[in-house]
Design a protein that fits this description.
The structure is a homotetramer of 431-residue chains. In chain A, 53% of the residues lie in helices and 12% in strands. Chain A is an alpha+beta fold and 431 residues long. In chain A, a hairpin with a 3-residue loop joins strand 1 and strand 2.
Amino acid sequence: MAYQNAQLDEEKVFKDPVHSYVHVRDQVIWDLIGTREFQRLRRIKQLGTTFITFHGAEHSRFNHSLGVYEIIRRILENFTDRLQWNSEQRLLCLTAALLHDLGHGPYSHCFEKVFDLDHENFTKQIILGDTEVNQILTKVNPDFPKKVAEVINKTYHDKLIVSLISSQIDADRMDYLQRDAYYTGVSYGHFDMARILRVMRPLDDKIVIKSSGMHAVEDYIMSRYQMYWQVYFHPVSRSAEVLLSKILQRVKELHNDTYQFQKEPTHFYSFFTGEIKLEDYIKLDETIMMYYFQTWVDEKDSILSDLCYRFVNRKLFKYTNFHIKESMGDLFQLKQLFKQVGINPDYYLEVDSSSDLPYDFYRPGEEEERLPIYLQMENGELKELSEASEIVESISGKRRTDHKLYYPADRIKKLPDSQEKQQIKALLGMK
Amino acid sequence: MAYQNAQLDEEKVFKDPVHSYVHVRDQVIWDLIGTREFQRLRRIKQLGTTFITFHGAEHSRFNHSLGVYEIIRRILENFTDRLQWNSEQRLLCLTAALLHDLGHGPYSHCFEKVFDLDHENFTKQIILGDTEVNQILTKVNPDFPKKVAEVINKTYHDKLIVSLISSQIDADRMDYLQRDAYYTGVSYGHFDMARILRVMRPLDDKIVIKSSGMHAVEDYIMSRYQMYWQVYFHPVSRSAEVLLSKILQRVKELHNDTYQFQKEPTHFYSFFTGEIKLEDYIKLDETIMMYYFQTWVDEKDSILSDLCYRFVNRKLFKYTNFHIKESMGDLFQLKQLFKQVGINPDYYLEVDSSSDLPYDFYRPGEEEERLPIYLQMENGELKELSEASEIVESISGKRRTDHKLYYPADRIKKLPDSQEKQQIKALLGMK
Amino acid sequence: MAYQNAQLDEEKVFKDPVHSYVHVRDQVIWDLIGTREFQRLRRIKQLGTTFITFHGAEHSRFNHSLGVYEIIRRILENFTDRLQWNSEQRLLCLTAALLHDLGHGPYSHCFEKVFDLDHENFTKQIILGDTEVNQILTKVNPDFPKKVAEVINKTYHDKLIVSLISSQIDADRMDYLQRDAYYTGVSYGHFDMARILRVMRPLDDKIVIKSSGMHAVEDYIMSRYQMYWQVYFHPVSRSAEVLLSKILQRVKELHNDTYQFQKEPTHFYSFFTGEIKLEDYIKLDETIMMYYFQTWVDEKDSILSDLCYRFVNRKLFKYTNFHIKESMGDLFQLKQLFKQVGINPDYYLEVDSSSDLPYDFYRPGEEEERLPIYLQMENGELKELSEASEIVESISGKRRTDHKLYYPADRIKKLPDSQEKQQIKALLGMK
Amino acid sequence: MAYQNAQLDEEKVFKDPVHSYVHVRDQVIWDLIGTREFQRLRRIKQLGTTFITFHGAEHSRFNHSLGVYEIIRRILENFTDRLQWNSEQRLLCLTAALLHDLGHGPYSHCFEKVFDLDHENFTKQIILGDTEVNQILTKVNPDFPKKVAEVINKTYHDKLIVSLISSQIDADRMDYLQRDAYYTGVSYGHFDMARILRVMRPLDDKIVIKSSGMHAVEDYIMSRYQMYWQVYFHPVSRSAEVLLSKILQRVKELHNDTYQFQKEPTHFYSFFTGEIKLEDYIKLDETIMMYYFQTWVDEKDSILSDLCYRFVNRKLFKYTNFHIKESMGDLFQLKQLFKQVGINPDYYLEVDSSSDLPYDFYRPGEEEERLPIYLQMENGELKELSEASEIVESISGKRRTDHKLYYPADRIKKLPDSQEKQQIKALLGMK
């Protein structure tokens, strides 16, 4: 109890380019930031391979996590008049905000797909397991770690707290849109967060937005839409992700084939078996992965060596648009031709798909289900956003998907002339 | 010759948060950016350990190098009317700008001190050695690599080109001040670069500034001053540098003592002997170093393990002001006391000094000698900046130095009570 | 011819908060800026009564006109490789850009409605009439004024030039969205103009946008949409416009009734008769109007005096939403009640409607007809924007209208209690 | 008492480009903003004639006054933990901040000089006289107007309140530096106000700055220095001020000579006699002045007509540097020559001097005396800023003065050739 309410002698601040300053008064928050599990987030990039396309995007999840915390802190400050919360509720919100991304691995998106993992599960394990974070949370009170994990996992009984942390207009999204826009330097991603915070209201078990703030919310939704297509799904970054997947796939295969590595993938062993120890997970960050990739450039296996060389030195695959329905025949033919000219299509030909739902009012069963946005009209009535906004209505629930086919153009160009080469170039639209 | 003038089919641009866009039209520049030696700069942070203090400062030297190139490109665009240059001179400038930091190693400042290296020497080696960069430069013409190296080394005969790349108001400094301010988020570091570029003039073998731009230059000098003391010399970042030095020092000592490492420092071998092969140098970037540091947390040597744990997980030494003249006696006494309580002062007690000369008109023999800034008065006459500006005059040539003593406060606190502990705490001003 | 090509000895620049600098090299442009007709634009606010709501919006049409010129200048600079223009075509574009708003009167929107004028007609008159502007244009060549007027009037034969000046994504709109956002301080109005300029291409008689720039254009369209509803149609600014209209209407009526003014509206005489001399038009700017309004506060006519007091000292009418179809009966009843309590409904009750079409691909016959936006796909084919963009399609051609009823709440509150007062308050939803 | 504490039902906000939002909760503040005397500030430009040079600088004193209020509001919010103030003290601060510039007249600087007035005196008169502002303040309590006037006049007994409103780092200066930089678009004028507010502390009867904030304060002092020389004292704006003075001087002279005006300067009568009625002062704003200037362009007196034409249409005098000591002989000779060629030197030749003291620790008896800045060192001790900061020390107390001689170059050029003309041109350095 004493620890739960303990305040620092003097407020600490972090200079933050996005929110100007991040303010910390609670001893618990300060201590959590100092844990090795939280410091580890400095070695995980917020945007994975995006830095390959937007060189500014080298910022880490540490940055973002502080930002989400700060937004929640400001929201709670605005809510003080309206919310009769005890200090545990407040701390629960702040803590969940700070720790919500704790379980992210290196290049999460890709890594989770190849090894069939879920970072949310690891967030939970870090909070509940034998970690510095857990020690601190337990000191607050023995139930506290469980509560924090439940809020992040959206299963906590107090839905108001859950919706502060996870909704279609939560602190997580508001931070990353602005932060990623800032670091990439794109002109999208800006919206009037100060105004949105001013028109947010807690109402029973939800966060609602005063209807006078609708346009600011529209602007936020549009920012989100633009960031997805201009930044997050950029085809060049996806090319780097394709390489990454192929490397991990190759390493796994070689390991299963008892290939003799010069540099054994010891850090990956437990991922190959699927029985991942928490400590192994925590240890594997992006600097470790880069170490392996750089070392493997010198492996004898030419596929592994080539893929690693490409990833480390940005010799990416090229891409072409791919129409998933019409072009399956071409893809089949390309695979045959690749084999004939001695290029392994399992590693050198890949269709990557990106898909986004800019806003949805109802998505039960979706993996990334988030709560809809409600406007509170002047008469007090609630309206779901897409009912009130024509613009949002127009994009609401419309999934847009983009398919690209990735291939090693440089290698194809270097092939000796042959009919197959001509066919490959024609099918890929190469000049 | 053909290659020297080759233009891309379509201009390529990089989105840059500082300069909005970086524009590339020359095939040579495009090819240089694609080399492995240039891509390596993505794995070297521009500000070394500063990210420990300013979490936003995670940007790499790759970022900065593109920025310096872009500034020079704009300057040359402004100069087209005034400068009768051939295409080689132009390309020489652009190339030297792009490659000027190529030889930086991981956490350069610290690394160079411990192993007694000079990154400028490695820049030269990369340009002249057996590298992808050298192949491209040689394709321009066989003398070209040598010329580029000379420009960067400030020994090239055409002093106008040299002064574009290295002076007290060169593209290097203009980029890093703005870029580091942007990523850290501090409010210093801003000045009107557009105006400075507009008032720059080539004059014989110098770059001069039209006197009407004096205030913009004053603002730049002040920015520089503030960035040094607020960001670059921040005592917390220096604490991380102290740890880094101590780790490298310990590894070297253990290696010399034939200590049996669990993870041998193979990447460092040639640094221990001082006979550094270029390829070894290129391979050692910050991801590799972090791999070792993380692995060494599990070494048996308790000093190495502790120092690495501290660096990786940000358990830094604390600091206190240290008056180099008056306090030497105290330092001696502290070392004795440290030994008595079982803390090795060679690794756990360090005086770090930072020192800056905000502007100087004449610094012959200085390691980082840069050319003074000349204003061109309306009558055509040249005046050295500090003669014309009272503000600059007031800080010109005044070296300011700051000494701090670093120590492990956490460890001292955990010592059992003793007279020595009390004395240590008293001498360090610990509560 | 000599004058047409005359360049200033040294480029002049204007420091501009939106475009950083406005650059002038042509003597003709410099001379035009110096004319009294162009300087007059300093006394016409860009956003009329908007400053009443957004106190920052005090900027003038002078600002905006320089901005439009600067954008066109940059576009032409980008086009140099693609466009084989002679110097007259270039100057025609720049001049038309600079002068396009020359005929705006004080609080144009309102003023034109009350006196049934058209500022475009006055722009033409100023360009062709006996003015300093005309003298300069005639010096270029005798046909030049006519050509400039035709470009602004969209009747010029070279449609490429016309479309640079007037289309749905022209320099005019790009400047005012950004400028008005800057001065009001709202977070809308930002889009990546640098990118849009980079992807603009002249193609036959049109300006087209490379399809890779579609998202930047979407962002621009959204900015426009938000600015209209958040800033331009703000109900409080419209309240000030209602007052303004009522003042002008009252003055006209009093004048027709041969009312004896203490301060005769001499500057307005020719507007009352409808036979407006160009010189009278030029003389009537916002400082002159404010002089009259302030003086008329002391007129005996209580309506004129009250309306002027309200406008000068910001004692505005309140407003309520008004459903044009359902509420006409209420409006009729309110008018009756107003008369019964002694308030003249002709001056104290007004329905104001705002209406916007965010983007339209085809609006023949519209007063403000502008050309649609074409994207150039990778295969060279043109696509009208709303065909390619779902978001734009969703708002394309959808007119949105907002009706508000304005009334003097303060005066109604001060009425002695009566049944009529109660009825008025009920109908207006007053508390 | 009830009124003193009355809060609005819902907080009102003004969108402000500099501080993002200005927040108002107090009924008193809201009512004061609505008064005609405060609304009048919309018709007085913050920077007088500066808009002639920097076209963006069209913002009014209304803007700035809201900004100063907002800064004080934030400071008081920060102080809540440290300051045991009653509600009157708080309101006194806010009110004084809001109203501190209430007495400014049109183009104050110039106007006050010509008519020998002092705006601070009029601020006091408006607060204490028969005005809407006074009614509101009296409603707070009958002594309140007097207290507000005393705070603004720096004679109030509570020096802490005085120093919040007037010191070398007060809210007034912090607002105008940032605001004027924003509207002009210059890159100076930025400093980290958020940080300065964070390190401000009330201490007895002063505001002190924690020493850790010294660099932010240095930055502020430098901003101030740059803004003075780059913006406030810009020689082109001063040229417009010279015209303005000459117009007022001419009108006064004509009036004294019983010249028959077409448009009598009725608004100026009481200024000519020096017995200025408050109501006359309040009525004279910049729109009224511009009305007269525009009307007087048609006066028969050729000097008045010409000066007004010049001011209205920006046909300014040119300037040359003037060395006050060495050139007095030249000035005398020029005056003679002017008379000989028929140009009245009283109206067409003027030396204007600007002079600034960037920071001073002690200026007793200065007209614009402001309190020095104190740093609070870690040991609690106070240090005056220039003792702690080398940079500030270097410019502290150093008055810098600039003299320019203004003359009508256009008119001189049009003179028929003569020896006198040649002499004039030579003396003025005209080409």
